[in-house]
Amino acid sequence: MLRQTRVVIDLAPDYDIDLVVDGTAIPDSELDVVSETGRFTWEPGPGKTFEEWAPGFHVIEVTWDRVIGLPDPGSLRWRFRVQ
């Protein structure tokens, strides 16, 4: 179902992220994290910050930084529309 489409962020291992959806920070407890591969996944669902993608435009913002070794911060923002 499109209204439950996942957001997937792939980084190298040893990074952490902050995810913001439509201006609302997503709690770490809602992220599925595979730290060995650096994959972070989030999707709307029951009991989560957003239960589904509402029709219209959405903005995803992710910031990251290395948690082991030298800092390596970065960010990315993208926008998409659900019909």
Describe the structure.
The chain is an all-beta fold and 83 residues long. The protein has a single domain, classed as Immunoglobulin-like (Sandwich). Helices cover 0% and strands 48% of the residues. It contains no helices and seven strands. The strands form two sheets. It has a four-stranded antiparallel sheet with strand order 3-2-6-7, with no helix packed on it. The model has no long low-confidence stretch (mean pLDDT 94).
Radius of gyration: 13 Å
Reported CATH architecture: Sandwich
For the largest beta sheet, what order do the strands appear in spatially?
A: 3-2-6-7
CATH class: Mainly Beta
Structural class based on helices, strands and sheet pairing: mainly beta
Number of strands: 7
Secondary-structure element order, N to C: EEEEEEE
And the CATH topology? Answer: Immunoglobulin-like
In short:
The chain has one domain: Immunoglobulin-like, CATH 2.60.40.
Task: Jot down its keywords.
mainly beta, 83 residues, globular, Immunoglobulin-like
Write the layout of secondary structure elements.
Layout: E1 7-10, E2 15-21, E3 24-25, E4 32-34, E5 39-42, E6 56-66, E7 74-82
Antiparallel strand pairs: 1-5, 2-3, 2-6, 4-5, 6-7
